[in-house]
Amino acid sequence: MKSFLKNLLLFASLSVLFATLLQYPIDQGLRKTDFHLFHDWNRIYRGPLDAEILIIGSSRAKHNYSVPVLEGTLSISAYNLGEAAQKSYIQMAKLRHYLHHQAPPKLVVFNIDTDSFEDLSTRSKTYMPYLSDSIIGRELARTGEVTAFMRYFPLVKYFGQFEAAKVGLQEYFSWHQYENPKTKGYQALPGTYNKRHVEEVIRLYPKGIPTRIDTKALAEWDRLLGELKAAGVDILLVYAPEYQTIQAHYEDKGAVLHTARQLALRHGSALWDYSDHPISHDTRYFHGDTHLNDVGAEEFTRVLAVRLQEELGETLGFK
User: Fold this and answer.
1) Which of 54, 116, 201, 262 could form a disulfide with 105 if both were Cys (CB 3.0 to 4.6 A apart)?
2) Are 125 and 85 in contact (CB under 8 A)?
3) Average pLDDT over residues 28-45
4) Superfamily the domain 2-316 falls into
């Protein structure tokens, strides 16, 4: 029995050592890569971004808000922190990570969608190499996005994340260097509308796409917006254009919009709702039902920038 226990302890020790030795190059490689999923996290560490406007959200933020148009129209600096499949808790952690390492912006624009107030975990775990960062690790543990096992046991966080591990090893050992396809966080999508995605979603949810408002998620939103206002950072909630087909299939989009309006009011802000804007009725502007194409993103951002200039320009110094 003693021999068995000794062998078991030896095996466990060697396993932990191997996992630790393997995790190190993966972490370090991902922390320096320009691979699109990790570029923005890394860019925050590298030096001043001096963004006066910060965009935060999921892929709808990433693809729908053209930073070049925003900067060109308002003559200010901006950055887009949107990322695909990035649910609210990750958005909040990324923003706090930004504010810890960068000068605060004048304005944070939150792109709101039907997932914004749900207590959801993120499929695309782009925070993996940064869990040792006290801000990121603490926030994601507090909201339940990650467990102590993921944070402290080597290599566990990369289980099922083969692509990320491969990128990390390639970058660390200089086997391959990835280029960043985005422009200050914004990534344009090609111009042809594809309806297959919405058809698949409707097939999966024939009775309507669920929309939920979770108390926990809403409390986290209140906490974050309160922190921003206390720090003197202005906030704005925006619901970007969506094509009408998918909008008609939500269970209760109105509840999401109502919740967003009330949240904004509690923190001295507003919700700008573009879900019924003319852009939302024209497939020429869409890549898919929830993502604008390059033409649509430029047109929407131009509309948004003009309104920012008219309504907030003097207050924020954008004129």
Assistant:
1) 54
2) no
3) 94
4) SGNH hydrolase (3.40.50.1110)
